[in-house]
Amino acid sequence: MKKRLYLELENCIGCRSCLAACTQCGGHEERNRNYVYDVNPLLNRQTMPLMCLHCVNPACARSCPAQAIQIHETGAVLSALVEKCIGCQNCTIACPYGIPKFDTEQNLMYKCDLCIDRSKDGIPPMCASVCPTNTLQWLTDDEIEAKQKQFNLDNGKWVTSLPYLEGETNVKVNLPGILQGVTKLF
Amino acid sequence: MQRDNYKNERDKYFKEIENLNHPNETLVKTHCSYCAMQCGMNLRVNTKTNKIIGVEPRYDWPVTLGKMCPKGVTAYQQVNHKDRLLKPLIRDDQSLKGTKNGFREASWDEAYELIVKRFTDLQKNYGKDSVSVYSGVSMTNEKCYLTGKFARVALQTRYIDYNGRFCMASAAGGLNRSLGIDRGSTIPWTDVHETDCIFLAGSNTADCHPTMMFRVWGIQERGGYVIVADPRETPVARRADLHLDLKPGTDLALANGIVNLLIQNGYADEEFVKNHTNGFEETKELVKEFTPEYTSEITGVAPEKIIRAAELYGKAPNAIVMFARGIEQQIKGVDNVSAYTNMALVTGKIGRAKSGVATITGQGNGQGGREHGQKADALPGYRKIANPDHVKYVSKVWGIEPEEMPKEGVSAFEMFGLMEQKTIRALYLLCSNPAVSAPDQNYVREQMKNLDFMVCVDFFLSESAEFADVVLPTTTWAEDEGTTTNVEGRIIKINRAQMPLGESKPDWQIQIEIAERLGRGKYFSHLKTSKDVFNELRVASKGGTADYYGVTWEKIDKQDGVFWPCKDESDPGTPHLFLDKKFNHPDGKAKILALPDRPSAEVPDEKYPLHLTTGRVVYHYLSGNQTRRIQFLRDMCPEPFVEVHPETAEKYSIEHEEYVRLYTRRGEATYKVKITEAIRKDTVFVPYHWGHEKSINLLTIGALDPYSRMPEFKTCAAQIEKMKTRAVQ
Ligand code: SF4
Ligand code: SF4
């Protein structure tokens, strides 16, 4: 069954295990491809991962003049193809989340490919495998729907669906505030 | 006895996931080398080179389900690291002690000869006890067990102790006193997310034991409550339902205050108290004084919060009290443990699933390593050296006469005192790095420097190795096999994924070879493998409190670990303690203890107006000797820092990222300032994973808990000074 990356931002503790694990994916040349952001370090320890959301209609791929950014049949937006990437860095500017990274030495863009050698066979990507807090999860659409019901906030905003972002994404994100919908046991 | 229905059940988080197998690789299942979560992992081994080349999650390990913190993910990078010690090192020039210089490579034979000659000479001149052993618990049960035997039988010294004195000794003392048994947790960890209220005292869970966080959040997801008592707003405190932001060192008052409210407000379980405990009335009397207002005065926590904490814990159908080094590394650590355990005993929230008490063990084998006799007063199976019957039993297993068993020694920190007095003249140090981890470093380093002879066994040249005459290269955890006992009291299997690098040898082998050269081979030579050592440990622990006799490596494999006590082959082990409400004191009852409050060894005054507290960051482990060498972890946290509240910073006119001088009565160091509102205004925090001039333990105090002999790392009095000229690091 198809599974997706699902994010519950409120759970994050900033351990950056997701980034450490990213370097361990066989296809990642030991470079991590995503970000963990300190929301307001002078105030508190809140952090959140900033992961590629694998847009259905990705701005990075659209902006690429060389068709170097391929979309896998699973929906994963892949890293730039070495033989096609011309190093123009359009994609790094086009992405509304600032995800693609650029290797100046290789003159090559690299980004999260959802550990495609794993996720194409339904194996969770490294980040979602190790995340100690279940901020990053690997779920079926049914499980995601159940989550949506569980954390319904009455404002329709439990996923990133804001108009100025890039529209529909393959990765589903639960914004901070998940506990607002929970009824206390006593 | 009531049956324990726990069958290592696959809980709601469990998923069948197949691992990714790369071509030309095999996966060796094992556990992390670092903390007591002992996260399951697979090591990726290249089948052509037979070298470890990476890590793959172990999704089917029931406790952690493939999850790892960044230390675990990168742990394998220790094994073939360029800094590995590959040959024994000898330093002939004693004047270079305390530096990295002057070591030359030597053969094992030469190193052994020198060690045996120096130890024998010193023992001839100054007695057997002039040689000491200082050990650690970041290694297997097999090694911990053999180290105790090595000290008592091969070296015949009474002076052996271990770094658990900086880690678990107060928890052990408190749990033994309250419950009659020291198994760190009364419940398996798979119960945690099922409880209705967790009370976390002095545990920076998110940084120190990250892979239990999904279960902690799971409590809130079900509508349960998370309460955290900590001077800092750690990531777990940030999202807690209630954060009790107490002054460092005031846990005893806080616990008494909560117990008082539990009793006053009718949350005591009278049946349970009457049938299964002693000491309720005295405690009730004593805690009366700890009204919310009085407790608030001492702790600095608002009275409403104390009232709310007692209400939530009291009302919860099931609740777990958990604590860690925050409450234990104090001169009243043992009392703190018993005082928080009182919460469970008064309300009867112990001795059943989803309710109980646990200390969150620090080191990988912090549990097993304290059970089998490398503690100054202990023998295998949690036996006591002061008990003649215990000595008789263990002597028989070891093949010595009971009279030959050395007497009880002293605690780790007190060994430095004996070095100063020249009672101890030589040291065999393994699996520990006291030149970073002990308090009052100026004093400790001086004592190590003054030793007549010192051996350090490690796989990297640690700060402590800089004081050694001989350094022996040992293996990492992935080059040997054996067992550890995790945070739950579950005995698990560490597997070998690679043959020892260079000439390194596992500690047990080194000790057997030294024993043979000391002429004590007849007590050791029958042990050919680590499994032989485990099987001897099983017999040595048989009938003790920590009974491992029924544990076999095969059983561990078959049932995903075995919880002790496990008395015989048919016994599946004991995941939940006290299901029959029988505690381990002779009368079967637990002790509710009346514990008067007292101040910390050093409280802030005019000259030193701030509380200094120390702890960990998620990227480093203990003294940092391992993790500081791993690129990813170093990139994430390259140096220590001092956390300061913005109002405090303003008072001292210091800015974010400026270097300041921090000092106490014992020492000083320079740190980069990290301004954050997530700390009390009267407190500063520095992580302790660095050595030399960056060590915060230059400043900490060597005051000890009277029972556990654990130093008070968690509070002393300090002052900050703005630097005249800005230091360039
Ligand atoms: S691994 Fe999970 S908890 Fe840790 S930083 Fe990444 S998202 Fe956050
Ligand atoms: S350090 Fe502890 S929490 Fe982190 S991976 Fe290792 S055992 Fe797990």
Automatic annotation (TrEMBL), chain A:
UniProtKB keywords: 4Fe-4S, Iron, Iron-sulfur, Metal-binding
Residue ranges constituting the 4Fe-4S ferredoxin-type domain according to the UniProt record: 3-33, 43-74, 76-105
Domain of life of the source: Bacteria
Pfam annotation, one family: Fer4_11
Cited PANTHER family: PROTEIN NRFC (PTHR43177), PROTEIN NRFC HOMOLOG (PTHR43177:SF3)
The protein's name: 4Fe-4S ferredoxin-type domain-containing protein
The organism of origin for this protein: Neobacillus rhizosphaerae
From TrEMBL, chain B:
UniProt keyword annotations, A-Z: 4Fe-4S, Iron, Iron-sulfur, Metal-binding, Oxidoreductase
GO terms of molecular function: oxidoreductase activity
Enzyme's top EC category: oxidoreductase
Pfam families named among the record's database cross-references: Molybdop_Fe4S4 (PF04879), Molybdopterin (PF00384), Molydop_binding (PF01568)
InterPro entries: Asp_de-COase-like_dom_sf, MoPterin_dinucl-bd_dom, Mopterin_OxRdtase, Mopterin_OxRdtase_4Fe-4S_dom, Mopterin_OxRdtase_prok_CS, Prok_molybdopt-oxidoreductase
Domain 4Fe-4S Mo/W bis-MGD-type: 25-83
Cofactor: Mo-bis(molybdopterin guanine dinucleotide)
Keyword Oxidoreductase carried by entry: yes
EC identifiers of the protein: 1.7.-.-
Protein name in UniProt: Assimilatory nitrate reductase catalytic subunit
Source organism per UniProt: Neobacillus rhizosphaerae
